[in-house]
Amino acid sequence: MPARKILVDTNAFLRVYQSPILPILQHEVGGCILLTLNSLIDEFLHNNRLIEQYDWIQTGEYIAELNSAALKIRAAQQSAISKKMKELKPFAKNFLENYCRKNGITPPKQLSARDLELLATAVVFDCDIATDEEPLALIIKELHDDDINIKRLTSFDLLHLFESNTKLTSEQRKLTVSNWISKNEKLHKGWRTDYESLFGESSHDI
Q: Per the count of CB atoms within 10 A, which of 119, 160, 162, 199 is most buried?
C-alpha cells in the first residue's frame, strides 16, 4: 500500500523543524509521507519576519530538505486544483461566516489564499493536512462530515507520529514543545488537552 500523503502547512513545518529530527519531509514514517507545497516554501522564504525568526532553517540540511519536499504537481492536476479552489472559496466563506455568527465571533474568521490552495490540493490528491490554523481546521472537519476523506493533524499529532515510530524520544518531544512555548508559538486551541490525550502526560510537566 502506498504511503498516505500529509501536506504540511508553513507553521507546522516550521514547528516540527524545531525538533531534533532530520529528515522530516519527503521521508516515509508510520505509513505516511510528509510533503508541502512550493507556494508555502516560497511564503517562508519571502517573509522577512519568518526568515528572521527561523534563520537557521535557511542553512545546511534544513533548506536542502525543504527545497526538495514540495508535492509534484502536473499541469492537469494544477488545473484541477484551480477549479477546486473556485468551488471551495464561496463554501469556505459562507461556512466561516455562519460559524462565527452562531458563536458570536467578530470579525469573522477567514481562510487565507494559501490555506485555500492547500485545501484544494488535498482534495484533488486525496491527502491529509497538518495545520494548527483554526479556520482551515474547521473547514476540514465540515468537509469530512460531508464524506470528503481529509484528515486534519496538528503539530502535536506529527510529534506523536514520530515518537510512535521511534524517530523521536519522549525527552526530545518535551524539549520541542517547551521550545514552542518559550517562543510563543501560536498553538492550536485545546492543545493541552490533546497533548495529554496523545502522550498520557500532563502538559504542565513540560
A: 119
Rounded CA Rg of the chain: 17
In this structure, the dihedral spanned by the alpha carbons of residues 39, 119, 92 and 104, taken in order and rounded to 10 degrees, is: -90
pLDDT (tens digit, 9 = 90+) per residue, 105-149? 999 999 999 999 999 999 999 999 999 999 999 999 999 877 788
Cα(122)–Cα(124) distance, integer angstroms? 6
Predicted structure pTM score: 0.95
Q: What mean pLDDT comes out for the span 18-37? A: 94
d(CA 92, CA 94): 6
Q: Give the integer Cα–Cα distance in Å for 88 and 116.
A: 8
Whether 156 contacts 33, CB under 8 Å: no
- Determine the Cα–Cα distance for residues 21 and 16; give it in Å rounded to an integer: 8
